[in-house]
Amino acid sequence: MSLNDLISPQAVIASLKANSKKQTLTELSEKAAELSGIDAREVLDALIQRERLGSTGIGGGIAIPHGKIAKCDRIFGVFARLEKPIDFEALDDAPVDLIFLLIAPENAGADHLNALSRVARALRDQSLIATL
Length: 132
Description:
Layout: H1 3-6, E1 12-16, H2 21-36, H3 40-53, E2 57-59, E3 62-63, E4 66-69, E5 76-86, E6 96-105, H4 110-122, H5 126-131
């Protein structure tokens, strides 16, 4: 599974205006809902539930919020570059401006973890980050 399998051109937001973590997650949930037909509130609830376990801000200005949803039929992503960095409670306390949202079916198991690790590895590539 490559990043191209997870994200379509329609799932990229080049310049997202958001002033907070909650606003960012709300905007990304709405985009995910638009692309998948899943209710935006259900997406947001899954993301907030996951964030309660610990921030998905992995450091270096990057966050990978993710969640599992029963009505989801495939693993997919939404990518956004924020107009200005926000506090995301990241591991390194640095503000975040690159966000890759990942949604998976509730029963995705190892496939969800595989997709998550693939995204995390790709976003550690400094040449890719510079391009984004």
